[in-house]
Automatic annotation (TrEMBL):
Chain ranges of the EAL domain: 24-277
Lineage, broadest ranks: Bacteria, Bacillati, Actinomycetota, Actinomycetes, Glycomycetales
Top-level lineage group: Bacteria
Organism: Natronoglycomyces albus
Protein name: GGDEF domain-containing protein
């Protein structure tokens, strides 16, 4: 009886492994087709200056609505793209949309900033900085309007290739941000060595800070450290008024999260921005 149960468990496990890798294989082929047909989308999530309530920019997030599976999370399809040699195309697609948005949403004395996520693999591509420079020129966007968000794994990846590329991007004048800060193999010393201007505190600490002493301590420590290095601090995953209040009280610069807005398709973001701005004019 026991053996039978165990066996059943193993079979279920194997079956789930099999369907998982089948899904992955299917996704890889479908992703190729989606890229060919330009079916991936980009959604935009506002970043808000916590001292003024004003919009400071948007993070551009890849979205894929699969014909059979429905929305597939970037947490799932980005690794598939990376394993199947499609990440370069995907990144350039997102970058293109980001630069179109930066240009369309800028105003005379108020340039729109856009942030794009980069995987270490993209950053290790020696031709990447040149392609970024060419895109900036083509879309007529100032380098300072573009931020690349990199995760801490960059610091433990192939640094001999990554660091020169980071330096070249920095020389171009684009901004660099460390994403999901506090979750990886962060060596605090890297913050000083890398040409970064911003850190984004991972949402798990932000979400925990109103109830958990440890999370609150981490958020405060990151703020402290960032001040020493003159870095801008973004709190991601702001979901409640209470979190917002606490972040503002301790002097966090920028907030991003569903409390302000979910990531939105372009047209809906434009409408959201109008509502925000009409609120400001009519406000106290
Ligand atoms: P990330 O760069 O840390 O992006 C923030 C994630 O948090 C997004 O998930 C966003 O939708 C989610 N989020 C924002 N506000 C809230 C909130 O208040 N509560 C909660 N629970 N979540 C919130 P998303 O869009 O699913 O993206 C997941 C990750 O996939 C991103 O994490 C990023 O690492 C990666 N990713 C997305 N687009 C791209 C891309 O174009 N290229 C690369 N290389 N990676 C991407
Ligand atoms: Mg990000
Ligand atoms: Mg993040
Ligand atoms: Mg994340």
């Amino acid at each position: 009886q026991v053996a039978k149960n165990l066996d059943g468990g193993v079979q279920t496990y194997l079956a789930s492994l099999e369907s998982e890798s089948l899904r992955r294989l299917g996704l890889a082929a479908d992703l190729r087709r989606a890229l060919d047909r330009d079916e991936l989308e980009v959604h935009y999530q506002p970043k808000i200056d916590l001292s003024t309530g004003k919009l400071v920019g948007v993070e551009c997030l890849a979205r894929w609505n699969h014909p059979n599976y429905g929305p597939v999370s970037p947490a799932e399809f980005i690794p598939v793209a990376g394993d199947t040699g499609q990440l370069g195309r995907l990144t350039m697609l997102v970058l293109r949309q980001a630069l179109v948005a930066a240009r369309a949403w800028s105003r005379e004395d108020d340039p729109m900033s856009v942030a794009v996520n980069l995987s270490p693999k993209t950053l290790a591509d020696l031709s990447f900085p040149d392609r970024v420079a060419a895109y900036l020129a083509e879309f007529e966007v100032e380098p300072s309007q573009l931020t690349f968000e990199i995760t801490e794994d960059v610091m433990v990846s192939d640094r001999s290739r990554l660091l020169p590329n980071l330096d070249r991007l920095h020389e171009l004048g684009v901004q660099l941000s460390v994403d999901d800060f506090g979750t990886g193999y962060s060596s605090l010393a890297y913050l000083r060595r890398l040409p970064v201007q911003e850190v984004k505190i991972d949402l798990r600490f932000v979400q925990g800070m109103t109830t958990d002493e440890g999370d609150r301590a981490i958020v405060r420590a990151v703020l402290d450290l960032a001040r020493h290095f003159s870095l801008t601090v973004v709190a991601e995953g702001v979901e409640s008024a209470m979190t917002l209040e606490e972040l503002t009280a301790i002097g966090c610069d920028i907030g991003q999260g569903n409390y302000f807005s979910h990531p939105l398709p372009a047209e809906r973001f434009v409408a959201w921005r109008e509502t925000l701005e009409s609120g400001h004019e009519g406000g106290p």
